Amino acid sequence: SSVCTKISTAGLASLPDEPLHSRASPEIAGDSRTEFCLRSAEEIKMGDPDKKWDFYLRTLSSSARDSNLAGDPASDPALLNAVRKLCQLCKEENSEDLVARVYPHFNKLFQRSVASLPQSRSSYGLLLLEIIQFFLDFGEIVLHDADPSLRSFFRSCLSREFADLTVAEATRNFLNVNKRKLLASYPALLPQFFPLLLKLIAWNGEKLLKSFLKVFPELISPASFLPLFPSLVDLPMLVVAMERVERSSGSLIGSSIASIQNSTAPEMLLALMDEAYTGSTIGDGGADSESEDTNAIDAADPLFLELLKDENDGLAERHRTSPSMAAALQAAVNAPQSDRLKQSLKIAPGLLDVYCAIAIRDVNDSLICSLIPLLMARNDVLFPDKNYSYQVRKRLLEFMLASFQRAPNFIALLKKPIMDRLGQAYDSSAKTELALQLCWAIGEHGGGGTSHRDAARELFENLELLLYENLSSRESALGSDSENFRKSSQSRLLCFVITAIAKLATHHHELLPRARVARSRISDVRVWRRARDYLGLIDDPAISLSVLGPSQGRVQKPGTVNWSDGGTKMIAHIPFYLLGEQEGSPFHDFSFSDIFPRT
Q: What region holds the AP-5 complex subunit zeta-1 C-terminal TPR domain (predicted)?
């Protein structure tokens, strides 16, 4: 058996021209099993078609009988080659009889391999993928449903070997080759295991990104659409979690991260979470080592267990407000970023682009309407890298506006979360920007349309409240640079609120008297001066159309001025630039010469 193994491993191409048995030593040549193996290999080399598959079948049988290999099939280096050759012969010969003879061996080998995985340190990924490919190619002939085999591979094998680049590349190739077949016969498979596939791309990085993008759309289904969103946004945090696991427990290859949840050593989990959240381990000394406040970690905190899960559990909500989470993010930012983390910061925005494009094109209104509150909640809860936060937040806001453009009634349906976000407009710059976009959307789409009068009235009341809060907070004089920035943000928000109130009153005439009352409450002399300038500009039809006219079906991009296409811009640029100024020189570099044509 061992000699057969050596011959098979060497490969048929390397077999010598002279008869093999003439080269064998007297000790080996006297063994009958060795003589058979040598003769078989010689017949294969000479091209006997009937002997090719018989030799490889005997290799499988020999491996199954060998007590040293039965419990760990992948440790036999000849086995993978035999499986590959048999699969190739089945395709070349196109013989159902051959397929029927091979199938029982493959099926038994697959079951033995899956059973051996927990106790083995050998890599089974390539072997199992070859067998599953056989099941997919010839399943109809042998009446084999590949779904249980595929799920066993993901749960038992890929969860342990996703960090192995060779297995990761083979899995990527397997998914791309069988993409149509998996989508047609097993449409729920990839959406169920999208967390595991995101682990694969997060750990192996840009090396797999281009080909992974080809299969990424198949991860999106009604069951995975909502849970997939936070997983994409948290991709850098997933890398941080996996790197901390690696530092705490060694290489990720050969051990299932998800098993941490069921670990028999809870102290390991506590140590891991302590390191992740505070940047230290339970055994660390230091001045604060005795402090319960600094070292107390809630062992029930599901943060890392959520990040490291392998399967879609259908839950889209994640708790992101715990002090432990803030500490973990801060520790990740203060430490030097690994190459893997840097790559994830680049990969996640690109995956979000694909996700949003598919959502707008293919996903139904119900799911998109459910996604928008999650999007608003995550707008200011992102991995604290400045460029990453900007890139992701930009995509989230653009997707939100595109969703409202597609279905304006979302504004009425989501009035409660929208009003909640308007009430948080001054909490942070990210929340201020979100409130700006929501104000614009409310005015642009008439609070959901003329058929949603009650929702429009409630939104109007919230805009009034926001207006009065803004005006009352503007009474203090300008001071520090941060105060000046806050004032400029308030001016910008004020412009959007006033414009939204005017547009709402235009859509719903019963609100016109209240819009006039809101205008009369503006007591700031500077605001009135800028407002008069603004109203004077509005007398120009082109400017009026640009600021207050319809969007004509185009998705808006707030913050851009393109007067050659003024009919589609209604983001209140003019009041922003005018009311944004304070006494003295402008704080921005905007001038009207930038927008009016030169003569």
A: 321-525
Average predicted confidence (pLDDT) for the chain: 75
Nearest alpha-carbon partner for 54 in 16, 13, 82 = 82
Residue 199 contacts residue 231 (beta carbons within 8 Å): no
Rounded CA-CA distance 337/387 in Å is: 14
Predicted pLDDT of residue 271: 47
How many whole angstroms separate alpha carbon 459 and alpha carbon 449? 12
Q: Poorest-confidence range of 50-64, 65-79, 149-163, 321-335?
A: 321-335
Backbone angles phi, psi at 419, to 5 degrees: -65, -35
Q: Distance between CA atoms of 347 and 353, rounded to whole angstroms?
A: 10
- Smallest Cα–Cα separation from 595: which of 560, 571, 568, 567? 560
Under 8 Å between Cβ of 339 and 393: no
pLDDT of residue 592: 41
What span, in angstroms and rounded, lies between the C-alpha atoms of 519 and 495?
12
Three-state secondary structure along 291-311? CHHHHCCCCCCCHHHHHCCCC
Phi-psi group of 407: left, alpha or beta (phi > 0 → left; psi -120 to 50 → alpha; rest → beta): beta
Cβ atoms of 195 and 203 within 8 Å: the answer is: no
Please tell me the distance from the alpha carbon of residue 299 to that of residue 288, in angstroms, as a whole number. Answer: 20
> C-alpha dihedral over 421, 314, 157, 273, to 10 degrees?
50
For the chain, what is the radius of gyration of the CA atoms?
Answer: 32
Burial 305-340 (b: 16+ CB within 10 A, else e): bbbbbbebeeebebebeeebbebbbebbeeeebeeb
Q: What is the pLDDT of residue 324?
A: 60
Three-state SS across 421-449? HHCCCCCCHHHHHHHHHHHHHHHHCHHHC
CB 40 within 8 A of CB 85: no
Rounded to 5 degrees, φ, ψ at 65 are -80, -25
Question: In terms of residues, how long is the chain?
Answer: 599
**Global confidence as pTM:** 0.75
Structure tokens at 28: 């080996």
Segment 259-285 mean pLDDT: 44
- Three-state helix/strand/coil letters over 116-176: HHHHCCCCCHHHHHHHHHHHHHHHHHHCCCCHHHHHHHHHHHHHHHCCCHHHHHHHHHHHH
Q: Is 104 helix (H, G, I), strand (E, B) or coil?
A: helix
pLDDT, tens digit (0-9, with 9 covering 90-100), for 525-567: 555 565 566 556 555 555 555 555 444 444 444 333 444 444 4
Cα–Cα–Cα angle for 312, 314, 317, rounded to 5 degrees = 110
The token pair at 444 is 């642009």
**What mean pLDDT comes out for the span 418-439?**
91
Query: Helix 541-548 crosses helix 525-538 at what angle (to 10 degrees)?
Result: 110
Q: Is the pLDDT of residue 255 over 70?
A: no
The contacts of residue 188 (CB under 8 Å, 6+ apart) are 221, 223
Residues 466-525: tens digit of each pLDDT: 888 877 765 554 455 566 666 667 777 877 888 888 888 888 888 877 766 555 555 555
* Distance between CA atoms of residues 266 and 274, nearest Å: 12
- Taking residues 229-239, report their average pLDDT: 93
